[in-house]
Design brief:
Blueprint (H helix, E strand, L loop, with lengths): L7 E2 L7 E2 L1 E5 L13 E5 L2 E2 H8 L7 E3 L3 E2 L5 H10 L4 E4 L2 H9 L3 E7 L3 H9 L7 E6 L9 H5 L5 E4 L5 H8 L4 E4 L1 H23 L7
């Protein structure tokens, strides 16, 4: 990943995956900061909050479906989320759920828990490894410590998820992942940092070229 500004990933069909997923419980409106390629991920909430937020002016692009109380993962529930609510990216711990989301034409992302090498290997054993089924790597900062061959084992797209609190950490993870998950304050700092960098670059480009003395 080279930039978090206005860049989307091709995931072999709709929907596109934003570079930044902003985590929210859906109980309060969260708008992606201007200039940041971002969308809202709803997690750790209940079905009523998801439905309400889906009908608002800042609907989610993704849902961590296993963390939503009152929302199942059967065929009807998946069709409701991806069809009626229009949420095209579904995170889940269950490989079969992600595969079914993909079969419906959307993007399924399987949680891969990498607190140690054994856990990561165990998570990958049941990964569908099919079109439109990617990986959610937790905790996020593990990604910067993976060897190239370990990173290559993760089915793409890869989302770096959890424990990103600083802009520097977000950018480091974003260099290797297709998307990162952050809380709203971190997203705001990312946007401000990116805007500041863009302004500095603009000033530099406008400076007159002078000869060395």
């Amino acid at each position: 990943m080279t930039s978090i500004l206005h860049l989307e990933r091709d995931v072999s069909g709709p929907p596109s995956l934003p570079c930044v997923l902003i985590a929210s419980d859906g109980r309060h409106p969260v708008h992606p900061p201007p200039g940041l390629d971002a969308g809202v991920l709803v997690r750790d909430t209940d079905l009523a909050a998801v439905v309400h937020r889906a009908g608002s002016d800042c609907p989610p692009v993704a849902v961590d479906i296993d963390s939503v109380a009152g929302l199942g993962t059967d065929e009807d529930a998946l069709r409701f989320v991806t069809g009626r609510l229009g949420v095209g990216i579904v995170l889940t711990r269950r490989s079969q759920v992600a595969a079914r989301v993909a079969a419906l034409g959307h993007l399924g992302l399987v949680h891969v828990f990498a607190y140690d090498s054994t856990g990561m290997a165990r998570s990958l054993e049941t990964h569908p490894r099919s079109v439109r089924v990617g990986s959610v790597l937790s905790p996020a900062q593990v990604i910067v410590h993976l060897r190239p061959e370990e990173l290559a084992r993760l089915p793409r797209p890869v989302v770096a998820y959890g424990l990103i609190e600083e802009v520097a950490d977000a950018r480091a993870c974003a260099q290797l992942a297709d998307a990162i998950v952050v809380r709203p304050p971190v997203a705001a700092r990312l946007a401000a940092d990116a805007m500041g960098g863009a302004l500095e670059e603009g000033v530099r480009l406008r400076l007159p070229v002078t000869s060395a003395p």
